[in-house]
């Protein structure tokens, strides 16, 4: 995304200070009480309805993708997490990116810029499995689907989580901030 | 693997998206599931304490809520902890993973590979692009290493949550 696009989007989304306060107060989760909007609004000096209406607007503008119970995939047994990176022909990357996003096991699929010569990869696909062999099989299936448009790929496995804000993953030691 | 009963699974499946923005959202959830609001809240609290759920709440599109990008840096193994701590202290960093490329490590042992091994990967966020670049530059100066900047050009995922194949995971 270019600088100008992002600045344009920020303006178009029109988040004001009160919206930003709600983002900060809810990004680590809602309080689990009967009236969560009131509980969020109280410390911010906002009524429950203001919080609700502002969040509804953020849903409509796409600032909030969804409001959900967010599972911890590690605790559900998805312990192999591979960031696969692909060097895909620019002429085909958009079509193939859309196709791959719909493949089971793929949670995120992004196009990012190359930085030649040290970084030739322009498509990032996050793969999740119960073990690394499962991730390797998913990557092999993607390789076939990409065909001749793909020159090279790698899988970078997460070996340690050093920081994950808002998520409390197991009892792994977290480095002091 | 966490121990979950049928109601836990229904709760998780039903609310991977679209918690209603009504005045009593958990009461609305409860009605859909045919249980009481108090039971839904208690279950969610237990699932969150047991770390089966990382949170219940909004999932933000950080590209729209502000500015962010994926960054990477190549660090010798011995310096990883020190550099990771500096990255984590840096304002705006919200994810930081050590990543390893096993295939590349095999090639390197055989002397068949050259270039840069990016092994620390993190997401830098800021209120806008100007602050984002300032934060990246400040961190580069502190680390005395260049950062690979990988902003999102386009996101293709449809983001329907992550359907959980309970049967494959075993259990009741």
UniProtKB/TrEMBL annotation, chain A:
It comes from the Bacteria. Residues 75-163 form the Siroheme decarboxylase AsnC-like ligand binding domain. It catalyses: siroheme + 2 H(+) = 12,18-didecarboxysiroheme + 2 CO2. Keywords: Lyase. Residues 19-65 form the Siroheme decarboxylase NirL-like HTH domain. InterPro entries: AsnC_trans_reg2 (IPR040523), HTH-Siroheme_Decarb (IPR050684), NirdL-like_HTH (IPR053953). Pathway: Porphyrin-containing compound metabolism. It is an enzyme of class 4 (lyase). Its EC number is 4.1.1.111. Pfam families: AsnC_trans_reg2 (PF17805), NirdL-like_HTH (PF22451). The keyword Transcription regulation does not apply. The keyword Lyase applies. Involved in heme d1 biosynthesis. Catalyzes the decarboxylation of siroheme into didecarboxysiroheme. Belongs to the Ahb/Nir family. Probably forms a complex composed of NirD, NirL, NirG and NirH. All proteins are required for the total conversion of siroheme to didecarboxysiroheme. This is siroheme decarboxylase. It comes from Billgrantia antri.
TrEMBL record, chain B:
Keywords: Lyase. Involved in heme d1 biosynthesis. Catalyzes the decarboxylation of siroheme into didecarboxysiroheme. PANTHER family: SIROHEME DECARBOXYLASE NIRL SUBUNIT, TRANSCRIPTIONAL REGULATOR, ASNC FAMILY. Belongs to the Ahb/Nir family. Its EC number is 4.1.1.111. It catalyses: siroheme + 2 H(+) = 12,18-didecarboxysiroheme + 2 CO2. The lineage of its organism: Bacteria, Pseudomonadati, Pseudomonadota, Gammaproteobacteria, Oceanospirillales. SUPFAM superfamilies: Winged helix' DNA-binding domain. It is an enzyme of class 4 (lyase). Residues 8-51 form the Siroheme decarboxylase NirL-like HTH domain. Residues 67-144 form the Siroheme decarboxylase AsnC-like ligand binding domain. The keyword S-adenosyl-L-methionine does not apply. This is siroheme decarboxylase. The keyword Lyase applies. It holds the Pfam family NirdL-like_HTH. Pathway: Porphyrin-containing compound metabolism. Transmembrane segments: none annotated. Probably forms a complex composed of NirD, NirL, NirG and NirH. All proteins are required for the total conversion of siroheme to didecarboxysiroheme.
């Amino acid at each position: 995304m270019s600088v100008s696009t992002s600045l344009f989007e920020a303006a178009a989304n029109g988040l004001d200070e009160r919206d930003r306060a709600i983002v900060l107060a809810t990004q680590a989760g809602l309080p689990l009480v009967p009236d969560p909007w009131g509980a969020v609004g109280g410390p911010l000096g906002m009524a429950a309805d203001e919080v609700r209406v502002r969040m509804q607007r953020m849903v409509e503008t796409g600032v909030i993708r969804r409001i959900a119970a967010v599972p911890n995939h590690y605790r559900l047994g998805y312990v192999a997490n591979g960031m696969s990176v692909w060097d895909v022909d620019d002429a085909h990357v958009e079509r193939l990116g859309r196709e791959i996003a719909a493949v089971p096991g793929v949670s995120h699929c992004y196009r990012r810029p190359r930085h030649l010569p040290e970084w030739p990869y322009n498509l990032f696909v996050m793969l999740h499995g119960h073990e690394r062999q499962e991730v390797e099989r998913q990557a092999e299936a993607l390789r076939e689907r990409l065909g001749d448009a793909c020159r090279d790929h790698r899988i970078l496995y997460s070996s340690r989580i050093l920081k994950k804000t808002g998520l409390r993953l197991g009892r792994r030691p977290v480095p002091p901030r | 693997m966490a121990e979950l009963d049928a109601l836990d699974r229904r709760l998780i499946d039903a609310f991977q998206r679209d918690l209603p923005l009504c005045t009593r959202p958990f009461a609305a959830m409860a009605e859909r599931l045919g249980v009481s609001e108090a039971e839904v809240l208690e279950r969610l609290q237990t699932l969150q304490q047991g770390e089966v759920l990382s949170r219940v709440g909004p999932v933000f599109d950080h590209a729209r809520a502000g500015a962010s990008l994926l960054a990477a840096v190549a660090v010798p193994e011995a310096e990883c902890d020190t550099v990771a701590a500096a990255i984590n202290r840096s304002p705006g960093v919200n994810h930081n993973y050590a990543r390893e490329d096993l295939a590349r490590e095999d090639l390197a042992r055989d002397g068949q590979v050259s270039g840069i091994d990016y092994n620390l990967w993190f997401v830098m966020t800021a209120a806008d692009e100007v602050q984002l670049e300032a934060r990246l530059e400040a961190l580069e100066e502190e680390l005395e290493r260049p950062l690979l900047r990988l902003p999102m050009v386009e996101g293709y995922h449809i983001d329907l949550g992550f359907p959980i194949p309970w049967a494959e995971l075993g259990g009741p």
